[in-house]
Amino acid sequence: MYLSAECRMVYEVVEPMVDNFVLGYCSTIRVTLKADRFICIEVDGTGFDLGERSYGGIMVPRVYASLTDFRTVGGVQEIFWPNEELVHSAHSAGIRCVNALSACFSAESHCGGACHTIRFAQGRLTQPLRSEGKTTRQGTVITFLPDPEIFPDHSVFDSEELARNLKHFAIMGPGLNILFSNEYTGQPEQVFFAPEN
């Protein structure tokens, strides 16, 4: 079945979050189409890794390499899982593609009482990882705007297609809550949940 490019971008972010749920690190994923056409995807997991790694001979935040370097293997788990040795996600390249294809892209971590953000435009760093202060939340928030130079028809986002496929994700992950809302159209929030057997 054909999937619109923008919906595929959403799935590339949601899929590793579903893997996160399977490993027991989260229970809820929230997808919101914002009134300004941004797409916000939140998971109540661990928050992303704030450590550093060697990148081109210099030390950089691990999340930077995870979101930009297609040469690394198993990078997405560094954003969503606390232990990079735990699993090598099959969806490692997906979120990097979303970053590269977005006019604006941000990753936000809520972990250990602190909030940190990093921002990009078309895959290029625009704001290094920085502290945003204290938080009572826990998890990761990915927000992006599909690049209008690449997706000129982004204004006609197919929310029905997105809702249908998010429901499929919930069915494949019994016990996982997926919440979907469309602020642009004002449609009420939809909840997709398949009870565990």
If you had to describe this structure to a student in words, what would you say it looks like?
This protein has helices at residues 5-22, 62-68, 77-80, 94-100, 159-172; strands spanning 28-33, 39-43, 52-55, 58-61, 102-111, 114-121, 124-134, 139-146, 177-182, 187-193. By secondary structure, the protein is of the alpha+beta class. An 8-stranded mixed beta sheet has the order 7-6-5-8-2-1-9-10. Strands 3-4 form a two-stranded antiparallel sheet. Helix 1 packs antiparallel against helix 4 and helix 1 (5-22) packs parallel to helix 5 (159-172). The protein is globular, with a radius of gyration of 16 Å. The model is unreliable at 73-77 and 81-91 (pLDDT under 50).
In short:
With 197 residues, the chain is an alpha+beta fold. The protein has helices spanning 5-22, 62-68, 77-80, 94-100, 159-172; strands at 28-33, 39-43, 52-55, 58-61, 102-111, 114-121, 124-134, 139-146, 177-182, 187-193.
What's the structural blueprint in terms of helices and strands?
Elements: H1 5-22, E1 28-33, E2 39-43, E3 52-55, E4 58-61, H2 62-68, H3 77-80, H4 94-100, E5 102-111, E6 114-121, E7 124-134, E8 139-146, H5 159-172, E9 177-182, E10 187-193
Parallel strand pairs: 1-9
Antiparallel strand pairs: 1-2, 2-8, 3-4, 5-6, 5-8, 6-7, 9-10
List keywords for this structure.
197 residues; single chain; globular; two-stranded antiparallel ribbon
Provide the residue-averaged pLDDT.
81
State the low-pLDDT regions, or none.
73-77, 81-91
User: Number of DSSP strands?
Assistant: 10
Query: Which descriptor suits the 3D outline?
Result: globular
Question: What structural category do the secondary elements indicate?
Answer: alpha+beta
Q: What is the CA-atom radius of gyration, in angstroms?
A: 16 Å
How many helical elements?
5
Tell me the quaternary state. single chain
The fraction of residues in strands falls at 35-45%
H-E string? HEEEEHHHEEEEHEE
Distance between the termini: 29 Å
**Major sheet characteristics:** 8 strands, mixed
Widest sheet, order of strands: 7-6-5-8-2-1-9-10
Helix percent band: 25-40%
